[in-house]
Specification:
Bound molecules: flavin-adenine dinucleotide
Distance between the termini: 16 Å
Structural class: alpha/beta
Order of helices and strands: EHEEHHEHEHEEHEEEEEEHEEEHE
Number of strands: 17
Helix content: 25-40%
Number of domains: 2
CATH topology of the largest domain: FAD/NAD(P)-binding domain
Number of helices: 8
CATH architecture of the largest domain: 3-Layer(bba) Sandwich
């Protein structure tokens, strides 16, 4: 669907928030020829963003277990954009495994998702030699990918500048003070204008060991949360993530035990790993847990990326650009008010 574009071809665009949502918006707008300024209150380490704490899995097929089809549609489009703009992104797939006691949940996961092949113990060993003898079988999602948030965010910021955009860190701004097209990507901080946003806490641990080698995220079926181990290079692994309706940013003993226990269940050598970091972030979510692009004249808000920020940000940026340049409207995610 189209409506008359209220906006102008190559008008300047200001984007607030340099997390994964704002960074992709800035990149696509700058590459399309718009003069872009990206404002971020954090310093370049981005520790004030949720994106800093994320796993970085690009897993539209696995996520179908608990998400609406729109997440899969936008996620698959995003995979193309990640591949096009970041050809070094590891497209090594993801692996889902379960212990015998969680067999029923494993079969349920297989039924609710597509895009996987079943591996027997030999197939698992061929794919991830470290997991030899650990599991009877597994589900392999060959077309999924993962990025390392703390590496890819600075890369995105550098790309924006290479495309002619400006990135201003340590710069807390108010949309009302900025003229022209403004794209609000403030995540949970946008609650002053979108009060239905809530934070969903995700806790994570980073550990280090030379005893385990993995080439792709491994998800362990768990009755409450999708627990996973993501290789981060240099012997580091991220263990994530809880999903708790709470807005404090601590890590509870219970969660730490669950996360570390999941890693130990994937491979006992994790018992000897060194704990590098505990942390947590608040996923910005609307009541339906779906992303939303809200447009009012030259004010656009992109938010509610929930557990799918890295998965969805490229496709959402493409939709926003299509709206600004051609008035194109995606009925599933866009609201013009
Ligand atoms: C533990 C954990 C694991 C996750 N794993 C995954 C995963 O594997 N895959 C996936 O796709 N997603 C994952 N997510 C979800 C993902 O992290 C979020 O969906 C995403 O980070 C949201 O991005 P955002 O850009 O909307 O918000 P943010 O990353 O929070 O960015 C908003 C930015 O706006 C800035 N800001 C706010 N107010 C202002 C202001 N007034 N002026 C200037 N700047 C401002 C903030 O400092 C912040 O940097 C995970 C989340 C958590 C917590």
């Amino acid at each position: 669907m189209y409506q008359k574009s209220v906006l102008r071809g190559n008008s300047p665009v200001s984007i607030i928030g340099a997390g994964i949502a704002g960074a992709w918006q800035a990149l696509l707008f700058a590459q399309a020829g718009h003069p872009v300024t990206l404002y971020e209150r954090s310093d370049a380490d981005m520790t004030l963003s949720t994106s800093h704490w994320a796993g970085g899995m690009l897993a539209p097929w696995c996520e179908a277990e608990t998400s609406e089809p729109v997440i899969g549609r936008l996620g698959i489009r995003s995979l193309d954009l990640w591949r096009e703009h970041f050809p070094d992104t590891p497209f090594n797939g993801s692996l889902v495994v379960a212990h015998a006691r969680d067999r029923a949940d494993f079969e349920r996961f297989a039924r609710l998702t597509t895009g996987h092949v079943r591996l027997d113990a030999q197939g698992l060993r061929d794919l991830e030699p470290s997991l030899e003898g650990r599991f009877r079988d597994g589900l392999f999602y060959p077309d999924e990918a993962h990025v390392e948030p703390r590496k890819v965010l600075p890369e995105l910021h550098a790309r924006i500048e290479a495309a002619g955009g400006t990135v201003k860190f340590d710069c807390h701004v108010n949309a009302q003070d900025i003229d022209g097209i403004v794209i609000d990507c403030r995540g949970l901080s946008a609650r002053n204008e979108q009060p239905e946003l809530r934070g969903v806490k995700g806790e994570m641990v980073i550990v280090e060991t030379s005893e385990v080698e993995l080439s792709r995220p491994v998800r362990l079926i768990h009755p409450r949360w999708p627990l996973y181990v993501i290789p981060r290079g240099d012997g580091r692994f991220m263990l994530g993530a809880t999903s708790i309706e709470a807005e404090d940013t601590g890590v509870s003993v219970r969660s730490a035990l669950e996360l570390l226990g999941a890693a130990y269940a994937v491979h006992p050598a994790f018992a000897e790993a060194r704990i590098v970091e505990f942390g947590s972030g608040l996923r910005p979510a609307f009541p339906d847990n779906l992303p939303r692009i809200t447009a009012h004249d030259d004010r656009i808000a992109v938010n509610g990326l929930y557990r799918h920020g890295f998965l969805l940000a490229p496709a959402l940026a493409e939709l926003t650009l299509g709206y600004v340049q051609r008035g194109a409207i995606d009925n599933e995610v866009m609201r013009c008010v």
